[in-house]
Amino acid sequence: MKTRVDLQSAGAIHRIIQDAAGAVDKARKDDPTALQEISDSTDGDPFRVLIATVLSHRTKDPVTALASSRLFARFPNVKSLAAANTRTVARLIKPVGFYNTKARTVKKISGILLDKYGGKVPESMNELLELPSVGRKTANCVFVYGFKTPAIPVDTHVHRIFNRIGVVATKTPEDTEKELTRLANRKDWLPLNEVFVKFGQLVCKPIGPHCADCPLNDRCKYYKTDYLPRIKKEQRQN
Questions:
Q1: pTM for the complete prediction?
Q2: Which residues fall within 8 angstroms of residue 204, CB to CB, at 6 or more apart?
Q3: Does the domain at residues 1-30+150-238 carry the CATH identifier 2.70.70.10?
């Protein structure tokens, strides 16, 4: 995979993370992501982080936060959720995407944790990946937001932004994770996901990114090769 040499260094990536964090610092404090809010309010309960991450698949953050809050108010731990009525769980987590399927999944996960791991969430990547609906992003979210273990969860925001900037040139989130794990200093892994989820929601949006006001535009490939030429063309036409 090709990467932009001038953006590959750990120092350059550290500055990108710091500058992005500064741009969304107030928003992160006033309106944290669903996983950060759960992590903060439960002192990093790996079980709740795991279940909330499964609920978050194809679901917007505010919906995930509300659904998780309703679910854990009724079923606060692995034992109670494992014994829960599936229809009740579905009602509580609605309208997250595929809520009926997810209700069965989180109940199944809880049962596996209870039967196989004594009610604890395993700290092994391989064991986490054996759980239903748990891929690398979900497992890495458990590491970061639950166990406070350095990892890089790569969601659509992280994948999109680091490709847009030109730090990586990857096709899948899994490839982006591999590249960022190789390039970024380990000390920057923990905050990376939280920063760029919020940065992707507010600044580097999927459609209509706020390029003119972005603190990263001085080193951004998309800004230089797409945004600026388009703006100049529009100015000439006017």
A1: 0.93
A2: 157, 160, 161, 164, 210, 214, 216
A3: no
